[in-house]
């Protein structure tokens, strides 16, 4: 049997009870699982301190000295054992709250020990709770090198499975390994990437022999983790392409031709033409399309979606578009209805607030085939919503939907429909390889003619008067302005209150203009009414929360003022900036910040002022916030990485993906005897579920 498959309970120091704790708390079932419970930090044990050197800046300290006395204080759960430890320069108390009798019997007075632990200052005296203690024989047994520290849970600690205990169990595990651990990557990959062998990497990540060897071990194991993540993504995509046959759209008919000749609002950019060709190629391939369409705000993604949906209609299929909010769904419906007016294409809107009678009519129209295009929110995935012949699905702002929600759209057709995922939140290439690694990618990297980039400036409250005067000048020219408040609380009550207060202030400042109010606690009909009046220029100034962040299209709005801009993420600020400059007028984004800014907040504001490139903004946001917060990796179905980081280790991702593609190119099913082990290794890396949920 492979030593890595050894049941965790048989490792010395574990046993059945501790094994049960390790299984429940950290999903460690085997020796192999244990080895992949990597340290979260390392402590230099080469330095020996004196008691007189202890100060509050030290996280951990190592001392050599003698125990001169034991004392027991307190009763019941407050009972504690205190040992007086001295090295001649001072005295520190060693404190235990458990195992008191055992400790008293184990350690002898006036014998030299090496003590290691975390110093605390209490009532003016230094103490070290539950220290690690080893007898000091001579310099040969003095601890040296880097010591691994392991994350543990409260339940583990209650069963004496703290970091020190885990380190001892890890040492016992290596004591069981009599032969070299089997290599987990191919010899070619190890050689080409110049990786440390697996056995040495495991030894040096847990018991580093030097900082250089630890660095090489971490590099090797990070690469391996990313390789198996990419392998699971590549295999999933390849398997799906082979197994899922796509509906065919062989012809371009009268609907698309009529639209192209008579309805096109402006000439397509070369980027839009390229993306339509890519989608067209997918829909005649006989394979199901799963394509990611990235494009900065205002780049013309919606127009591409409309034209592709018309191709579906020309081939006898229905389409649907799912948006994350009712406001955005309603705007898409208005855009589609306007662009397709006078054409024999039936478009319907279905949201949570659609009236019962209208909802029933929509359900009937979908089943009969009278409705060609359905636009809506998550209401589209309800079981009662069934299509006659769904062939094309568009998901707008994909990162706002969970895996299960997206998968439910697939179930609306006996044959999986083509799927186009659209996002205006640019995704850095390396992150895209992981978050959307199973999708083919298209990018609209040109703006339509007439789009002028917004001028962005950030300033502080000191200049509020100047900012308000500037907005007044824009209003006098017939333009409109957004004022946006940040999220204050999850329930939205604080947000609404802040927006109401801002609305009152703006109404007093601009008495000659209609000032609207928009926040998440308004009824859907009220929100829709406010947006419609703003769109028609009946409302000139809009005080709003971030409900305007995605997709709102008001060409006459030329000013975006973001209040407390330091509280927003970079990508969110860029999305808000995208609400202006959608007409032919010069536009301005003003970021109002507090007078006291931290370095990260200042960096975000400077980045917004210096760049209008959505992809560069996304890169900077990723560097500042990380992928989990920015993209919600869990809702994408991505497994958690134990060692690698999608931001700091981004340079490894293309290399790992290239090797994964190379492996599957010659053996897509990994069915060759020498490749079957990779399937087990994917499961070892990403838990009992075996890897990745589909993210398409």
Map the helices and strands.
Blueprint: H1 15-26, H2 31-35, E1 41-44, E2 61-73, E3 80-86, E4 91-96, H3 100-106, E5 112-117, E6 120-122, E7 125-129, E8 132-135, E9 146-149, H4 154-158, H5 163-176, H6 187-192, H7 198-206, H8 211-243, H9 254-263, H10 270-283, E10 290-295, H11 301-314, E11 318-322, H12 326-339, E12 347-350, H13 356-368, E13 373-376, E14 390-396, H14 403-410, E15 418-423, H15 429-435, E16 440-444, E17 455-460, H16 464-476, E18 480-484, H17 493-509, E19 515-518, H18 524-535, E20 541-544, E21 557-562, H19 570-577, E22 588-593, H20 599-610, H21 614-625, H22 627-631, H23 652-666, H24 677-685
Parallel strand pairs: 4-7, 10-15, 10-16, 11-13, 11-14, 12-13, 14-15, 17-22, 18-20, 18-21, 19-20, 21-22
Antiparallel strand pairs: 1-9, 2-3, 2-5, 3-4, 5-8, 6-7
Structure write-up:
The protein is an alpha/beta fold and 696 residues long. Among the domains are: 47-143, OB fold (Dihydrolipoamide Acetyltransferase, E2P), CATH 2.40.50; 254-444, P-loop containing nucleotide triphosphate hydrolases (Rossmann fold, 3-Layer(aba) Sandwich), CATH 3.40.50.300; 455-611, 3-Layer(aba) Sandwich (Rossmann fold). The chain is built from 24 helices and 22 strands. The strands form 4 sheets. A 7-stranded mixed beta sheet has the order 6-7-4-3-2-5-8. The chain is globular and about 95 Å long.
